[in-house]
Amino acid sequence: MDNKDTISVLNDLIETSKDGEKGFRECAEDLKNPQLKTTMNQRAQDCATASAELQQLVRTLGGDPETSTSTAGDMHRRWVDLKTKVTGKDDESILNECERGEDVALKSYRKALEKDLPMDVRSVVERQMQGVQRNHDEVKALRDAERARS
Question: What is the pTM of this model?
Answer without folding.
Answer: 0.88
